[in-house]
Amino acid sequence: ISIVLTTFCNLKCVWCHREEKHVKDAGYLSKNLHYASLMKLLPQLKGFDVLTWGGLGEPMLYKHFYEVTKEARKYFKIVKTTCNGTTLVEKNIIKLKNSGLNFLEVSIDGFDNEDNMRLRGAHEGKIIKNLESLSENTSIPLQINTVVSEENYDSLWDAVLKLKNVKNIIM
Fold it and tell me: Does this model's pTM top 0.85?
């Protein structure tokens, strides 16, 4: 099951549907899931094996992300999220480890700063440093997600070299 914690995001990815008129007009953006409602819902979802925090926002920007993840682990074998890697700073890595999150997908769409900045609005080098720090301090399995297109194809050749110090990547 997938739950949208927030529709707030700190990036402007060219692939994202956030900027489409029908999404903006729907009034769906810039919202957070009500904490008390979520805490009431989680026990009712017992029986599902996997919970994914996802949606059109950056899940780790949700104010109660670590708390709800810890609570969700009581009911789900696997709790995972997809993030853009910008929030994986040192203080959050410890909270992430303690939350019980047991799978993390990180989206990077270019393996040079120019492509990733143009396609996502984030410095690829900072995200890779965050991933290295995460892998040094946790055993959370990582998956790297990339949209492959004409826009970034050439920069993807460097992915293996640039991610060589990230120990938790699964294939």
Answer: yes
